[in-house]
Amino acid sequence: MADWKKIKKIDAHIHIIPGVVHQANPDSEDEWVYADQSKYLNLMKKYNIEQAIIMPLNDPYLMSMEFTVDAVNKNLKELVHKYPDKFYAMADIDTNNSIENMKKNLIKAIEEYKLNGLKIHPNNTGMNVDDDYNVALLEEFNKYGLPVFIHSYPNSKDDRSATYRVKYLVNKFPNIKFIISHMGAYQYEDLLDTNCYVDISAILPDYVNKFGIKETNNILRKFGPERLIFATDYPSSRCLVPEEIYDRYFDILNQMDFNDEEIKMIVYDNIKNILNNIIVS
What is the pLDDT of residues 62-78, one digit of tens each? Predict the structure, then answer.
C-alpha cells in the first residue's frame, strides 16, 4: 500500500497570508505566522505536495492591508502568479458589499485575476450559507463551471454552516461542483445522499480523537474515495499545532484500508479533475 506521505499529492485547502500582512504584523505569534508562502514551499518539498489550493477567509482584514475584497483577490492572484505551477486560489467574498458590487468583484476575480473558484465561509461572513445573498452570487457564478468550497463545521443544528443549509445549495445548483470543507463535521450524514465532494481538512484528526481510527475509516468509506479530497487547513487546526499537522494526517491515513488506486484518487485525481473541469462518468 502506498505511503500517504510519499505519494504525489495536492493539498486542496491551505491558508497563505500575503507578505504585506505579515510585514505589518511582525510581532504576531499565532498560527498565522506559519501561513507564509516561502515556508510552505519547504513543506511541499518535504511532504511531496505538488500543488496546493490557497483559501481566503471571507474576512478582508486578515488577507489585505486595504481591507477590501478586491484587494484580497488581487493578493491571491499575486500569490498564485509568483509560483503558477505550485498554487491555485479560490476567490474571496465580503458580504458587507451590496450583492451587485459583490457580483462585480466576483466577475473581476474570475475573469481578470483568473482565480480558480469560490470559497464561502458562512461563519466568518456572519451570514447563513443558504441566504438569498449567496444564492444570488451562485446564480452569477454558475456560468463559469468552477468549483465552490463551502466551510461546514457546524456547532449546532441551526449553525450558519449547518449541513441542511449546505444541502439546499448543493441541490439548487446541481451543475456546480461543490466541495464541502471539513466534511460537515459531525453532521456529515446529511451529505451522504448528495453529489458533493468533501475535503478532510481540519476534521480528520478531530474524528480520530472522538471515534478512533476504525470508525473514522468507516466514515470516510461511507462517502467513498471518488468523493473524498485530501486537504489539511494548514496551518489551522482545532487540536494540533501547525508543526504537527502533516505528520499526524499521514500517520492516521496510513492506518486506513484504502488501496493504491483509491489513495491516488483522494490525494490527487479527484481535485485535479475538478480544477481541470473534467467530467468523470
Answer: 899 999 999 999 999 99
Would you call 268 helix, strand, or coil by DSSP?
helix
Q: Which domain holds residue 89?
A: 9-275
* DSSP code, position 195: S
Half-sphere exposure of 63 (CA within 13 A, CB side): 27
As for how many domains the chain has, the answer is 1
Q: Please state whether the predicted TM-score (pTM) of the whole model is above 0.70.
A: yes
How far is it, in rounded angstroms, from Cα 191 to Cα 198? 9
Of all residues in the chain, the percent with pLDDT exceeding 90 is: 91
Q: Among 247, 244, 229, which residue's Cα sits nearest to residue 178?
A: 229
Residue 277 is which amino acid? Answer: N
- Which residues in 172-189 are b (16+ Cβ under 10 Å) and which e? ebeebbbbbbbbbbbbbe
For residue 175, being part of any structural domain is answered with yes
- Residue 168 belongs to domain with CATH number: 3.20.20.140
4 lies in some domain: no
